[in-house]
Write a structure and sequence with these properties.
Elements: H1 3-20, E1 28-33, E2 36-42, H2 45-48, H3 55-67, E3 75-81, H4 85-94, E4 98-103, H5 105-110, H6 116-121, H7 138-150
Parallel strand pairs: 3-4
Antiparallel strand pairs: 1-2, 1-3
């Protein structure tokens, strides 16, 4: 077994442990830096009543907490399944060097975890989405952006 398969086994192990603890769906993820696991996560959606508690998100949170950083540069993410759109976004915000995934979107859809409906929503105009989006109060909302622009001690990311 090569090192990548070994780390993928750890991601799957996280998925299996989470499932056996009834924490959520069959998904696990680890974050590796310099050959060491710095973050672990598994799906905890149903046990925490948090729809964002996917394996990748929980692993990213754990890793960032452990290295005291909001970025995962120099890191590799191993996730038991191809990331959903939300996790894909979280991964890009965390900025790891690379991602390895085990099963794919179709494998997940085959057992009832189909995120294709989200991919179909993204290119739609706001008024045609299944959850309507409407802009209101832009001038009110811009206040925080204006203050951010003026803020002298901000941390860029």
């Amino acid at each position: 077994m090569n090192k990548h398969e070994k780390f993928m086994s750890e991601a799957v192990k996280a998925a299996l442990e989470g499932m056996s603890n009834n924490e959520g769906g069959p998904f696990g993820c680890i974050v590796v830096k310099d050959g060491e696991i710095i973050g672990r996560g598994n799906n905890k959606v149903t046990s925490t009543n948090d729809p964002t508690a996917h394996a990748e998100v929980t692993a990213i949170r754990d890793a960032c907490n452990n290295i005291n950083s909001f970025q995962l540069d120099g890191c590799i993410i191993y996730t038991s399944c191809e990331p959903c759109p939300m996790c894909l976004g979280a991964i890009y915000w965390a900025r790891p060097d690379r991602v390895f995934y085990g099963s794919n979107q179709q494998d997940a859809a085959n057992i009832g975890f189909d995120d294709q409906f989200i991919y179909k929503e993204i290119p739609l105009p706001y008024e045609k989405r299944s959850i309507p989006f409407q802009q209101i109060g832009r001038n009110i909302a811009l206040e925080s952006f204006n203050k951010w622009t003026e803020k002298q001690d901000k941390i860029q990311y």
